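QA checklist item 7 of 12: single-chain prediction sanity check.
[x] sequence parsed
[x] length recorded as 324
[x] structure emitted
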Amino acid sequence: MNSFEETLQRIDNEIAHLKFDRQPGSLYDPIKYILSLGGKRIRPALALLAGNIYNNNIDHVVLPALGLEVFHNFTLLHDDLMDEADKRRNKPTVHKVWNANAAILSGDAMLIQAYQLICSTKSEHLKEILDLFSITALEICEGQQLDMEFESRLDVNEAEYLEMIKLKTAVLIACCLKTGAILGGAPKEDAENLYVCGINIGLAFQLKDDYLDVFGDPQTFGKNIGGDILCNKKTFLLINALKLADQEQKEQLLYWLNQDTFDPAEKISAVKKIFTELQLDKLSETKMKAYYTKALQHIQALYVSPKKTKILEDLFDQLMYRQS
């Protein structure tokens, strides 16, 4: 099997050779920009690694995997616009470099290009892969809609939040693993186990992302710390803070949630202090660990040698303990 580092190198090389030479060039410049920012490339890597478990030759998995990465970056481009985010991977977001219209239209073009890449799938698997990708894309839109609706609600519960991040984040990770497995020739049971594994590691991944948004190091996180706090995002941390806070803490939280104008640094500091007092960092870590453990159980259920799954297990370990 190829190592994770070799897999990432191949993905970076393939992305660098993607052609965006149609006209007008101004439509494609934002696409080139966001893809040039790098990122973890976890999703296409998962597709290639899953395929490599069952097949030494994964050339036919590369273009669909790139399609999944292009699609992921399309969602980031639109998410940043909806969230009014200033930075992505320590660089200005597309709507800041260009404008909102460019972010919308170039994002739409990225979605079409993602489908074009995924349609390179061999004919015997094309319908299955397209069906999987299409329902995944729809679920991500559903998750984003829930996320936006939660912004105006104070009664979001933990189960609703977990369903939202499952749709918004975890289903794409699951789709990548299952896509690679199908194209690699995995048995149906293994492909399904990898999908469920992806759901669980995706939930852990998003919980970690929300955790880092509050408790991470801004020098390594790649985004401004406290963005979720400033936007009143109903994260695992805030939902549990509202649930567990005493009267004084809850009054402080509601004060900051209801302020239209405020000093950003002061709000972040005040809300983070309450999260820390309630030990929500530890509660979040416990929840992440539970999903991480479930993901490993589904890997261990695969009908392959443990040697072939070690790279995936090591990668999940990196995701769990990452700082960015």
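[x] summary fact logged: The chain has one domain: 4-320.
[ ] second reviewer sign-off
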